[in-house]
Every structure is written in structure tokens, then in C-alpha cells.
Design brief:
This protein has 120 residues and is an alpha+beta fold. It is built from 2 helices and 4 strands; from the N terminus they run ββααββ. Helix content is 31%, strand content 38%. The longest helix has 24 residues, at 62-85.
């Protein structure tokens, strides 16, 4: 598995996603409001058994890392879809929230403020 299996971030999109309040060289011309992308994933039994065994001897749980990266990327894709549907070309102050969902999976929410920005 390569680094792309364990990383993430924005791919080519019409919506710029940043974790900052503003974007250097741009001005916010309209604030649309909060947007989010949500997904809940569960692990299959085989990966849970493997993770349990690996946790006894220590080390990275690569299967879980890969699953979490894919889950975060899916949440970001949904965030972008919602922002575009509302007319935004940027999401400011993007963050992730990760929680356990009723002991059956992991909930990942990507959220931020949808806005329209233009070059200054």
C-alpha cells in the first residue's frame, strides 16, 4: 500500500477548502452558512479480529488507518457536494469531528462555512 492509501485532502474541485478564516489574495463576497458531509462506517469482522490481534503486540493498525482515511475523504466529498449545491466556491474553517456511533461504527463529519470568494 502506498502513501495515497493513508492520506487525504482535497482533490481537484470547484470548491476551495481551507481550515483558515480567510484565503490570502481573496475576499469573501458572501457567507452562505454551515455545510457538512457525514458518513458512518463499520469494520468487517475480519478487520476487527486482525486489529484485536495486532493491538496485543503493538504497532500501527494499518487496516484501520486506511479505512479512516477513506472515510474522511468521503465526508469531504459530501461536504463539497453540499457547498456546490448551495452556490459556494469555498468552504472556510473546515474541520473534522469523529465519534463512535452506537458501538457499531465510526461517524466522521467534515464541516465548515460555505462562502463565495473572489480574487482581490
Amino acid at each position: 500500500m502506498g502513501i495515497e492509501d493513508y492520506g487525504g485532502g482535497q482533490t481537484q474541485s470547484e470548491v476551495l477548502i481551507v481550515t483558515t478564516n480567510d484565503v490570502p489574495g481573496y475576499q469573501v463576497t458572501q457567507v452562505i452558512g454551515e455545510v457538512f458531509g457525514l458518513t458512518v462506517r463499520s469494520r468487517h469482522l475480519g478487520s476487527q479480529i486482525g486489529a484485536g490481534l495486532k493491538s496485543m503486540i503493538g504497532g500501527e493498525l494499518k487496516g484501520l488507518t486506511k479505512t479512516l482515511a477513506a472515510t474522511r475523504n468521503q465526508a469531504m466529498e459530501r461536504l463539497v457536494e453540499q457547498a456546490m449545491a448551495r452556490g459556494a466556491n469555498a468552504v472556510l474553517m473546515m474541520r473534522f469531528d469523529v465519534t463512535e456511533a452506537a458501538d457499531v461504527g465510526t461517524e466522521v463529519c467534515a464541516y465548515g462555512t460555505a462562502a463565495v470568494i473572489s480574487k482581490t
